[in-house]
Every structure is written in C-alpha cells, then in structure tokens.
Write the structure tokens for this entry.
Amino acid sequence: MPVRRLYMDNAATSFPKPATVLDAMVHFATGCGASAGRGGYAEAVECGRLLSEVRQRLCSLFNGADPRNFIFTLNCTDGLNLAIKGLVDPAGKGHAICSCIDHNSILRPLGTMEDRGWLAVTRVRVDPRDGLVDPAEIDMLEDLLVAAFNDARGKSEALMQSEMQKLTAGLNLPAGLKLPF
C-alpha cells in the first residue's frame, strides 16, 4: 500500500495543484509561452489578451474599480513587500501596526523602514497560549483606529472643500456661505 503524504505548507507553495491549474500551465508553456507586451507577434498578443481577461475576472470577483489596478507579482512575499514599500513615504513619518507573529514578509520591511526612521511601528502582542490579541492591547488599538478615522475625515473634508472651490470658482456666492456638504 502506498504511503500517503500529508503536506502542511500549502500556503507557501500551493501544492498539490489542481488538475485544471496544471492543464492551464501546460497549455501556456506549450502553446503560448511568450511575454505579454514584448512584441506584436501572435504569442505575445495572446499572452496580453490572457492577462487582460484574468484582470477583468479579478476585477469582477473583487468588485474592483478598474482591471488595470490588478497586478501580478512573483509570490505573496513579493506582493506584500511591493505594497508595503509603495505605501510608505520616507519623508512622511507614517505609522504601521502589525502583530508580533506576522509573517517575515511584513515584519522585515517594516523593521527596515523603522530602522531608517521612515515610520513608527506598533507591534501588537498576542497571547502565546491561544494566539489571540492580548486584551491589554485592545484599548491602544481602539485609540489608533479613532485617530486614523479622524485623520482620514479631516483629509477628506479638506479635499472636498478644495474640489468644491474649483467647481464654484466663477460663481458669485455670498461671503461666508457654507455649503451643506
């Protein structure tokens, strides 16, 4: 009787792959195999069409605004690093919150940016017995969420006022008129 294998690292490698995924990979490798955007030859155009179709499907699945907003990365670590590094303005002195048990693909870039003085990092403790957020951290998290909400509200109000001024610039509105929104 063959020995059954129990694979416990699926999140890292997505093994074993379903037959439909393998079929699609074989079809791509043997029937297309080109890089999208590398030329006007049939295989490159077909790859571009396939990528566009996948982006359309993802946009529909996730109720996205624009399929062009969906990008493909080498893996989750690469994608997380790209997102984290893309969101941090070194001059902005931002603030990030993570847990002490987050994956290295999150902890390492945040730690590096913290070391460089680009942002402050709050590491939420978890209870080692059950892996849940330490109840002592909940008040701090609530305070941070309220502060983030208030900051976002203030920025959206300022943006709204700026945009409304552009729209009403040629109108002779009475001084001190406050629009109801």
